[in-house]
Amino acid sequence: xxxxxxxxxxxxxxxxxxxxxxxxxxxxxxxxxxxxxxxxxxxxxxxxxxxxxxxxxxxxxxxxxxxxxxxxxxxxxxxxxxxxxxxxxxxxxxxxxxxxxxxxxxxxxxxxxxxxxxxxxxxxxxxxxxxxxxxxxxxxxxxxxxxxxxxxxxxxxxxxxxxxxxxxxxxxxxxxxxxxxxxxxxxxxxxxxxxxxxxxxxxxxxxxxxxxxxxxxxxxxxxxxxxxxxxxxxxxxxxxxxxxx
Length: 245
Known about the structure:
By secondary structure, the chain is mostly helical. 70% of the residues lie in helices and 0% in strands.
């Protein structure tokens, strides 16, 4: 909580004394008694770095992508939920839809368009007639069905464990990952099998070539031996003819 208070104070100081203020007009002394001049200079130096400015731009873009930003001020969902139960609902338990409205209503701007649409979808789902034997959705299930899968509102508000809300999606995602892994392993095995068959065919071809070459060498040796024998016979006959009587 202390760290959260420090972040809020720094945010307010930055917005009042730094954001939009020309560099030559930024204060060089601390604007508040609880911060020394050196601490203020360190903050100004940090805010002035390119890395900090880039992070601020990225964070702003990320905040703009959030469909349902919480409007609980410095309070967490859990703290806001407790306050709402104690001060507004008292003896009755608020539904998940009631808490969603309480935590996404700005004191200055009210409900955003995305929140209004989500509330309309939730109320329409609750008002839809249910046939006999059909499961009646609880308010928690209605909120879960309307909000995107990435939303952690129910978990953060203490209405649903994170594992329960994401169980079905997690199993489905895990099944897809396992199927992809299995397909990859099959492809690798098929490729390995094809490579082995290619190497086997090459080995057999090499063995056949070696066998043919061995046969040719043996034939050449045999032919050479026969030629040598014939040559010796011819030489012996010639020497006999050349011997005087």
